Amino acid sequence: MRRSSGAVELAARNDQPVPDSWGVRPCGEVSNDPMQILHGGGLLPLGGTEVAGGYKGFGLAALVEVFCGILGGAHWGPHVRKWMTTSADADLGQCFIAIDPDAFAPGFGERMQEFMDTMRNLPPTEGEKDVQVAGDPERTHIELVERLGGIPYHRNQISFAKEFAEVMCVEPMKVLRTVRI
């Protein structure tokens, strides 16, 4: 699972803890309780705490703020509305960059494939099956969806969607079948 506010919300709905590197409780202490992170806490930068290299993630986060907020003419940092509120327009900016990698490094595709294959062939950390690169988890999920013939949802997600449909006065989604994964 990737770290994002959506991933933390999903963990909360599924009654699952998140890794310690994902967020903090309201007092700023590291927490793996998604409810503490969502209600008054916040996300940690990529890498977590400073000891774990979080300062590198802070730099990446600052770059995203510059590109998407400041350069994009949108809100940034403390000017973006508070998490989980609708008191103001979010006014979130976006930045898209198109790069022709072969303009910088001929043979980029083949070199990149060799890099990804090398990463995938590294020994996994204890308790993990394999090393994955960007796109691998999504590809695995696509295969699961195709095998099941639909998108699997946790029962808590179904309950939340039903409650939300009632609040919004819309027809709730229909569960076609129940499977155990």
Automatic annotation (TrEMBL):
Keywords of this entry: Oxidoreductase
Highest taxon in the source lineage: Eukaryota
GO molecular function, one term: oxidoreductase activity
Pfam family of the protein (one): Ldh_2
InterPro entries: Mal/L-sulf/L-lact_DH-like_NADP, Mal/L-sulfo/L-lacto_DH-like_sf, Malate/L-lactate_DH-like
Entry similarity comment: Belongs to the LDH2/MDH2 oxidoreductase family.
Record protein name field: Malate dehydrogenase
